[in-house]
Amino acid sequence: MKFLIAIEPGTDTTAYGVVVPDLPGCFSAGDTLEEAFDNAREAIDAHCEILAEDSQHLPAPAAMAVHQANPDFVGWVWAMVDVPVESYWGPAEKVNITIPGRTLRRIDEYARAHGQTRSGFLAEAARQAMR
Predict the structure, then answer these.
(1) pLDDT of residue 60
(2) For the chain (length 131 residues), average pLDDT per consecutive 10?
(3) What's the order of all strands across the beta sheet hosting 16-19?
(4) What's the pLDDT at 114?
(5) 42 DSSP 8-state letter
(6) DSSP string, 47-74
(7) Which end of the chain, C or N, has fewer beta carbons within 10 A?
(8) What's the domain count of the chain?
(9) Which residues form the domain of 10?
């Protein structure tokens, strides 16, 4: 699953800070940009594992523009990281569904614009509908 991260640029004396805005309380850092990305993936994985153990669902992601409008993130850099956390909520199952082509294209466009996969978007939409 893809997660949006905000990266606070590091300096000669400070590390890169990383926040995962769609996972409140999930943050990390790294002395190099590569280390910041690796540590962000580890933080997301651990955060999601705890959510699943507590029988909680992933929060619905907000659009990047919503997070970019947050004054706390002025000057930060935005990126996406892929972390395979789906298994924490049970094994994935492949299904065959029928959806009109136009609707499928709109789903794909929306999911891509929000840093999601088609499957991730459909699963989250289903969870939201069943709440």
Answers:
(1) 87
(2) 94 94 96 95 96 90 93 95 88 88 95 86 85 72
(3) 27-30, 16-19, 2-8, 77-82
(4) 84
(5) H
(6) HHHHHHHTT-PPPPPPPHHHHHT-GGGT
(7) C
(8) 1
(9) 2-130
Cα–Cα distance between 85 and 68 in angstroms, integer? 25
> The CATH number of the domain where 55 resides is what?
3.30.160.250
Do 48 and 22 touch, CB atoms closer than 8 A?
no
**Amino acid (1-letter code) at residue 81:** V
Helices (H), the chain: 33-53, 64-68, 101-113, 118-130
Sign of the Cα torsion 57, 63, 68, 69 reads: negative
Other beta carbons less than 10 A from residue 122's beta carbon: 16
3 state DSSP class of 5 = strand
Dist. CA 117–CA 79, nearest whole Å? 16
- Rounded Cα distance between 39 and 28, Å, is 6
Task: Report the pLDDT value the prediction gives residue 49, as an integer from 0 to 100.
Answer: 95
CA atoms of 63 and 7, how far apart (whole Å): 17
User: What is the structure's pLDDT at 115?
Assistant: 79
Q: Say how far apart CA 92 and CA 110 lie, in whole Å.
A: 22
